[in-house]
Every structure is written in structure tokens, then in C-alpha cells.
Design goal:
- It is built from ten helices and 13 strands.
- It is of the alpha+beta class.
- The radius of gyration is 20 Å and the shape is globular.
- Helix 1 packs across helix 10, helix 2 packs parallel to helix 3 and helix 5 packs across helix 8.
- Strand 8 and strand 9 form a beta hairpin.
- The strands form three sheets. Strands 8, 9, 10, 11, 12 and 13 form a six-stranded antiparallel sheet that branches.
- Among the domains are: 96 residues, Rossmann fold, CATH 3.40.50; 64 residues, ATP-grasp fold, A domain (Dna Ligase, domain 1), CATH 3.30.1490.20.
- Helices cover 35% and strands 19% of the residues.
Length: 349
């Protein structure tokens, strides 16, 4: 019998009529993605169990054995929801793929992440955190600006209207976003340049795979010119005539010097947040040549059709099934090394 792998996930559902925003479930994974991951792991000789990360999760692991968990669960509630499954697994002493509690908690808080970037000397757009929508400040910032929910992923809460060009528009968007998402709002300078993302895989050392460039030049019909939630959600599901399908260039159209700088910056961001195994780092290469890090995603999307990370891996020579098994391998290598170091430390006491 092969390695026993539990695949933990949150299932994507359609929004209903309860007043939830259209993008409420966008971080969660589809049945097709879950099946693709499971099929890839099984093709690699592993025994796979599907475990939905709901209130029955703890009970499942108390009554079933898994050698390792392949975790793609985004969590259900709270500001640190992405760390919920790792917290349970750490408590039970079960190995899992991907980053731990701290990295997942920090990365979901955009402002805290940017503070760490600042301390590490990593370029990131200038910003302000709006804690009270009735007191909006743009002091020290240059328009255009972009508004974002401070603790969301997958482009949630980001639309074309999020890019604002004056104070009146800023106040309108802050009030609207705060009302819908019930959280603090990040306001940052909108960087004009090349939108890039860097997939990182492994630990000793982690490897920056080919840089992916997202080119919006053929999206004029929709007016979309950067990665909004709408583009992320529908780019591979609609006709190109609707203007929601940007071109992907991998490797990105960069000079060798630019590519080197972008990869070095992405790896520095990866280490600064404390990521392990895999991650995706989103960067805007400004017209000034500066690679501004927008955010780090320790739980990158793994949809075999429309997610950036598997596409980048494919460009690096890893097919989808090989990528899923490689993620398990690097996680096991890390856990085994940590266990070995812990044993050495105990024996030396």
C-alpha cells in the first residue's frame, strides 16, 4: 500500500441569495481541482482520502490515519482562517504540505505583510491602512490609488472601480468595500508596469521557477487592465471577445537582469514571510525598473486549467501529476529533516 495522503480542502459553492458578495467562495476549490489533485497523487502511487475542512475535520483525524496531509484548505472564519487546518495538524502532530500557522496568518494580513517587507528592504507600494471608513486619509500617497480588503485573497473585493483617481472616488470605494467585507481597508499606490508572478517550489534551497507575465493588451473590450477578481475568476472560462482572457507569457518578456532581480526579490519575500514548500509571489515591475511585491500567497491556486502555479510548473518541465507528487516530496523531506534535527538536539542534552 502506498503513502496515505489526506487531501484537506474547502469546496467552492455558488453564492446564494443571502446577501453574500459574488466572490465569497472564490478562494475555495472546485470539485474538478480536488479530483485532479487526487488523481495526480494516486498516479504517483499514493492512497488518497478526501477530507473537507469543516467542523468534522478534527474528528476525522482522531479516527483515521494519514502519513501526510496535502493541504489546500483556505479556512472558514476569522482573520487567520488559512491557518486553521495547520493548527489542528500541528496539535495532532501530523505532517502537512505548505506553510505553517505563522506564515499563513501573516500573509493573509496585507498590511502586516507590507510592514515586514519594509523592514526587510523589499520594495512594496506606499500604503495606508484605513481602520475607520468615516476617517479616510490619503496623506503621503500619489494617485491613482487602489483599495483592497486587508484580509482577503484571490482578488476578492478588487474591481476596476477599486482604482481611484481622486479623494471623492477613494472615499466612495473605501466605504463600499468596508460595508461589504466588514474589515479594514488597505489603500496603496497603483503601480503602472508589468504584472508578474513567481512560483517557488522546494526548500533546500527553494527554487524560483520561470517568471509568468500577465499581459492585458487584448482585454480592451472589457476595460480590464490588471488582475481583478473578475479576471481571476473567469479568464479561462469565457470567450476572448469579452476581454477577460489576458495573455500569459512564461518566461516573462524580461531582460536577464530584470529576471534575476525579480526572482531574487520573490525569494526574499518568500523567506521574509516564513514560507516553505511552495508559494506564489505577485510582483508589479514598475516603469522605474523596481519590482514592487504586492503579496505572497503560500496557498497558491492549483486548478489544472486556470491557476498560475501549475502553468508555471509546466513551463519549468513539471506536468500536473508530477507537480502534485513533488509538493508531497518536498514537504516530507522538510518534516523528516526537522524530526532528525529534533532528535539530534535531544540526544546532545
Amino acid at each position: 500500500m502506498g503513502l496515505k495522503v489526506a487531501l484537506t480542502y474547502n469546496l467552492k459553492r455558488k453564492t446564494d441569495n443571502t446577501g453574500l458578495p459574488d466572490d465569497f467562495y472564490s478562494e475555495f476549490d472546485s470539485k474538478e481541482t480536488i479530483k485532479a489533485i487526487a488523481d495526480g497523487l494516486r498516479a504517483g502511487g499514493k492512497e488518497v482520502f478526501l477530507v473537507e475542512a469543516d467542523k468534522g475535520l478534527l474528528n476525522w483525524f482522531q479516527n483515521n490515519k494519514a502519513d501526510i496531509v496535502f493541504n489546500i484548505a483556505e479556512g472558514l472564519n476569522g482573520e487567520s482562517r488559512e491557518s486553521q487546518v495547520p493548527a489542528i495538524l500541528d496539535f495532532l502532530g501530523i505532517p502537512y504540505t505548505g506553510s505553517g500557522i505563522l506564515a499563513l496568518s501573516v500573509s493573509l494580513n496585507k498590511t502586516l505583510t507590507k510592514k515586514l517587507f519594509g523592514q526587510a528592504g523589499i520594495p512594496t507600494p506606499k500604503y495606508r491602512l484605513i481602520t475607520d471608513p468615516s476617517e479616510v486619509s490619503d496623506e503621503g500617497l500619489m494617485y491613482p490609488l487602489i483599495t483592497k480588503p486587508n484580509s482577503e485573497g484571490s482578488g476578492k473585493g478588487i474591481t476596476m472601480a477599486s482604482v481611484v483617481r481622486n479623494r471623492a472616488e477613494l472615499i466612495r470605494e473605501v466605504e463600499k468595500t468596508a460595508r461589504v467585507y466588514q474589515q479594514q481597508i488597505l489603500v496603496e499606490e497603483f503601480i503602472d508596469g508589468k504584472e508578474l508572478t513567481v512560483g517557488i517550489l522546494g526548500n533546500y534551497p527553494p527554487t524560483a521557477m520561470p517568471v509568468l507575465e500577465i499581459d492585458f493588451s487584448n482585454c480592451k473590450a472589457s476595460g480590464e487592465f490588471f488582475y481583478t477578481w473578475k479576471v481571476k475568476e473567469f479568464e479561462k472560462e469565457v470567450e476572448e471577445s469579452r476581454g477577460l482572457s489576458p495573455n500569459w507569457h512564461c518566461p516573462a518578456r524580461l531582460s536577464r537582469a530584470e529576471e534575476k532581480l525579480v526572482k531574487e526579490t520573490a525569494l526574499k519575500a518568500f523567506h521574509t514571510i516564513g514560507c516553505v514548500d511552495l508559494s506564489r509571489v505577485d510582483i508589479m515591475l514598475g516603469k522605474d525598473g523596481v519590482p514592487y511585491v504586492l503579496e505572497v500567497n503560500p496557498l497558491p491556486g492549483l486548478d489544472p486549467i486556470d491557476s498560475n502555479f501549475p502553468y508555471i510548473a509546466k513551463c519549468a518541465g513539471l506536468n500536473y501529476g508530477d507537480l502534485m507528487n513533488r509538493i508531497v516530496e518536498v514537504a516530507l523531506e522538510r518534516h523528516n529533516k526537522s524530526k532528525s534535527l529534533a532528535l539530534q538536539e535531544r540526544s546532545s542534552r
